Design the sequence.
């Protein structure tokens, strides 16, 4: 195979992509996903943890308290963002309906050391963001009360859990796992999948538009043409993934970006070769894309179920807990890719002799 | 040949053809892959998902404590003696020494701490569930009741998202009459065994349980919860629904897109066009098999998940919307790669429009703009009203019908077989709708027809921006709403000027602007009266749909906007289009802001 020929074909395909400006859509796509998820996160953080947005930190909520007196009152007294109002249940519920209260609790006169459970009724406003916020706050109060009741009834217990003392966590949800455990692998993976779909388009188009014969009349051999297209698609993988990782659009710091890109490129090449094989076999886009997408689902389900899979390694690398074992996995993936590359070359040489016919 | 019989002929022909191309070669491999898929799914269910393995490092000095985190493979556990751990504490996210938990003061350390707290809660519950005296381990049960507040929508949306009562320290005094309510009984109406079962289910631990839980719906025991179960539902569950329902539908629509594209490759569709069958029959006939398949797929998934079949109703407009877009993309793409990119991009947009509002399904009324929210509500057993159905699906029905119409009008030789860039092909489609005899009537209709799309995009910006703190979100909404409207109005003029450069005279511009302004207003009014009354009452709604209060003011504004863009086009040609659009948007935003501050003050 002639490297110059491969380069020429790759250049032609890349020029075609840039003249159609379709690649812009792929980049827009990533920006869109990144932007939307960061917007989503701002919203969710505010929803689960109003203190995260500073202006809300002084807000206090009124809570109606009805029924018998209980140690729960002391639990509420520990909070400065919840103010308790003692009132009748019907008055309290009317006030809740008028939105003068954020929640209402009703406590029955069950003594703390009773045989049965203490069943508290909690009233919240339906379909409301504020209810989610108040839910989180009251949950903490009730957990405190539960702990107290457990202590009262401790002599009835038979086994005890190992005790752990947690530091003050500062509360609130944070989206570390969502960002690093889901968003980053997704964004790194997307270019690989897009490129694999692209190779199918590039190869089947030559068959379906019957432009292959023209191409074959040049000194470029069939296998060189296939590899040129593969090269063009492969170049896009690290470029696209890298643009996102390095720019850090979301202000998300990613460790080991270079190693992640290596993994993405190796995995991407594997998928591209798989796509190329399917496309060479079917020479028709609908069938090839269908089979490839189904195969993709199988491959991904399998990969996700294996410990130390490349996606997991990308996650670990991005938070810097990978360890040198990832080089071994990279080597394995590269080996599998090389095997698939050899198979693709062999298959391309075999089908080159067969004249393309339209179906 | 009647329309019905020609549709039938085309549908049968389409089925046969796709069966023969797919048939012999694809089906065996597809069947093999399906078997593999089942095997791999079984393997994945066995082995679990290993995506987030080992992202946290935890150092522990006691093997008993280590048992708390062993079930959670997000933690890479290191057992060592206390001094050594303390020495290397910077290498860990969390160190546990003699029962004391120390977390690194980083984002990651805090996330790890949160995860550890959850794991510990689960562990404590696990120990407690095995207690012979259940009410010693779980002494407190909460009966969660929701109260419907009539001023619901206005209150949550008018101003702050977390709208606390103004003065919480003053004891509230209900203004209206006080309704008498029955005091809840102090004994729980649920047996101890049921509660035990409920706890065992809730603490099942397998990550997939969370997802099957939302499909199976709640029983009566689920009304009572322990305090630790008392949390707002995690929104990412809705993502699973997207994959379960939307992805297969989108996937099937791809076949339709490809079938349309195949008619254009090598002018294959020429034979079809030369038959006496009209374009509408061709398109309906071609789409019908795919529509049926998609409906069957959705029904199969519904039955499989054990969800009520009524959730198919909100899915129908989604199916139509996918098919309509598949038609237009299949007709407009120049090459296969363009087809792929555009369809992937479109699917992301559509999926986020469907998905993001559902995140707020249980917390906010805005979520109803996505039909998928109705699916979520229906699965939860809440159901939806006819009004809500109309409200959330009207835009999908309207845009689908308009897109199918555009496709039908342009399903001709010159529309299908020309090789032009995407944008100018779409422009051709639009100018194909402008009649030469009655250009102003066409402009009027065109701008009325853009309304559903404008609303859809504005809804998207609403979803996008309502998360941002208050004054900024309103300003962003105002500006983007103005830009979207000006862009939509200018399309007609631009297309007409591009198609026939002589068309753009001062007289034609004036008449055209009036026609467009009227069309826009009429379309806006019609759609709003039909559906969006709920949203327009909120403050966000009044930004988007400000122009409804008085009639002549918005009419003048709409006409002025078109005139500005049109004059730029007239004076500087097509180069002036961009700047003209910007100027028109600025004027429009200023008008909106002026009225908005009037409303606010």
Sequence:
């Amino acid at each position: 195979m002639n490297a110059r020929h491969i380069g020429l074909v790759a250049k032609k395909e890349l020029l075609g992509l840039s003249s159609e400006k379709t690649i812009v859509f792929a980049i827009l796509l990533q920006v869109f996903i990144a932007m939307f998820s960061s917007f989503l996160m701002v919203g969710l953080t505010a929803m689960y943890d109003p203190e995260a947005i500073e202006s809300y930190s002084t807000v206090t909520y009124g809570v109606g308290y009805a029924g018998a007196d209980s140690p729960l009152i002391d639990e509420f007294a520990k909070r400065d963002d919840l103010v308790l109002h003692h009132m009748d249940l019907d008055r309290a519920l009317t006030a809740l309906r008028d939105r003068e209260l954020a929640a209402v609790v009703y406590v029955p006169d069950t003594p703390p050391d009773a045989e049965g459970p203490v069943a508290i009724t909690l009233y919240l406003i339906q379909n409301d963001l504020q209810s989610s916020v108040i839910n989180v706050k009251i949950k903490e109060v009730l957990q405190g009360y539960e702990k107290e009741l457990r202590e009262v009834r401790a002599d009835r217990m038979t086994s005890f859990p190992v005790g752990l003392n947690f530091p003050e966590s500062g509360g609130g949800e944070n989206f570390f796992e969502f960002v690093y455990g889901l968003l980053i692998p997704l964004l790194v993976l997307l270019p690989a999948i897009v490129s694999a779909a692209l190779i199918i388009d590039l190869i089947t188009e030559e068959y379906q538009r019957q432009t292959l014969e023209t191409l074959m009349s040049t000194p470029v051999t069939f296998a060189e043409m296939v590899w040129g297209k593969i090269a063009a698609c492969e170049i896009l993988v690290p470029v696209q993934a890298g643009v996102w990782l390095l720019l850090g659009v979301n202000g998300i710091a990613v460790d080991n970006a270079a190693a992640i890109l290596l993994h993405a490129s190796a995995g991407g090449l594997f998928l591209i070769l798989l796509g190329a094989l399917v496309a060479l076999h079917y020479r028709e886009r609908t069938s090839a894309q269908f089979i490839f997408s189904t195969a993709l689902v199988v491959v991904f389900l399998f990969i996700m179920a294996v410990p130390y899979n490349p996606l997991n390694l990308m996650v670990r690398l991005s938070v810097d807990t990978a360890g040198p074992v990832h080089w071994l996995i990279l080597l394995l993936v590269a080996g599998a890719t090389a095997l698939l590359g050899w198979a693709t070359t062999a298959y391309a040489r075999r089908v080159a002799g067969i004249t393309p016919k339209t179906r | 040949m009647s329309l019905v019989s020609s549709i039938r002929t085309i549908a049968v022909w389409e089925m046969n053809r796709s069966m023969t191309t797919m048939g012999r070669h694809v089906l065996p491999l597809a069947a093999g892959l399906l078997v593999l898929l089942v095997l791999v799914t079984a393997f994945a269910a066995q082995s679990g998902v290993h995506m987030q393995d080992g992202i946290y490092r935890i150092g522990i000095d006691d093997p008993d404590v280590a048992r708390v985190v062993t079930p959670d493979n997000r933690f890479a556990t290191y057992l060592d003696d206390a001094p050594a751990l303390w020495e290397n504490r910077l290498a860990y996210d969390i160190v546990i020494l003699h029962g004391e938990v120390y977390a690194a003061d980083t984002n990651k350390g805090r996330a790890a701490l949160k995860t550890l707290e959850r794991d510990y809660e689960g562990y404590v519950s696990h120990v407690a569930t095995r207690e012979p005296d259940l009410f010693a381990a779980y002494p407190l049960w909460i009966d969660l009741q929701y109260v419907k507040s009539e001023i619901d929508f206005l209150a949550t949306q008018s101003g702050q998202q977390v709208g606390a009562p103004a003065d919480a320290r003053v004891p509230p005094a209900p203004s209206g009459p006080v309704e008498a309510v029955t005091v809840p009984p102090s004994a729980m109406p649920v047996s101890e065994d049921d509660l035990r079962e409920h706890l065992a289910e809730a603490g099942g631990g397998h990550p997939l349980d969370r997802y099957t839980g939302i499909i199976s719906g709640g029983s009566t025991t689920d009304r009572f919860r322990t305090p630790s179960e008392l949390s707002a539902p995690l929104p990412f569950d809705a993502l699973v629904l997207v994959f379960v329902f939307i992805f297969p539908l989108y996937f099937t629509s791809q076949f339709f897109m490809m079938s349309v594209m195949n008619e254009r490759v090598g002018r294959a569709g020429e034979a079809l066009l030369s038959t006496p069958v009209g374009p509408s029959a061709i398109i309906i006939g071609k789409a019908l098999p795919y529509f049926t398949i998609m409906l069957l797929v959705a029904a199969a998934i519904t039955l499989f998940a054990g969800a009520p079949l009524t959730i198919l109703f909100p899915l129908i407009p989604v199916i139509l919307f996918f098919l309509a877009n598949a038609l237009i993309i299949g007709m407009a793409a120049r090459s296969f790669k363009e087809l792929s990119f555009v369809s992937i991009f479109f699917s992301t947009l559509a999926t986020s429009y469907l998905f993001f509002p559902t995140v707020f399904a249980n917390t906010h009324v805005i979520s109803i703009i996505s039909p998928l929210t109705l699916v979520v509500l229906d699965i939860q057993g809440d159901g939806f009203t006819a009004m809500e159905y109309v409200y959330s699906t009207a835009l999908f029905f309207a845009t689908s019908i308009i897109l199918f119409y555009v496709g039908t009008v342009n399903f001709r030789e010159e529309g299908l077989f020309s090789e032009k860039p995407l944008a100018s092909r779409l422009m051709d489609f639009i100018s194909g709708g402008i009649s030469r005899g009655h250009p102003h009537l066409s402009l009027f209709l065109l701008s009325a027809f853009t309304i559903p799309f404008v609303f859809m995009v504005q809804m998207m910006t609403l979803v996008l921006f309502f998360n941002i703190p208050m004054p900024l979100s309103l300003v962003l909404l105002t500006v983007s709403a103005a830009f979207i409207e000006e862009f939509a109005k200018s399309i007609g003029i631009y297309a007409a000027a591009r198609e026939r450069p002589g068309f753009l005279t001062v007289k034609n511009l004036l008449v055209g602007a009036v026609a467009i302004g009227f069309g826009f207003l009429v379309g806006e009014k019609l759609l709003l009266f039909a559906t969006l009354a709920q949203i327009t009452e909120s403050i966000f709604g009044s930004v988007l749909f400000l122009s409804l209060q008085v009639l002549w003011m918005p009419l003048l504004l709409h006409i002025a906007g078109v005139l500005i863009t049109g004059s730029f086009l007239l004076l500087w040609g097509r180069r002036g289009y961009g700047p003209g659009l910007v100027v028109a948007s600025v004027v429009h935003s200023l008008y909106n802001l002026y009225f908005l501050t009037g409303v606010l003050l």
Remarks:
- Confidence is low (pLDDT under 50) at residues 50-57 of chain A.
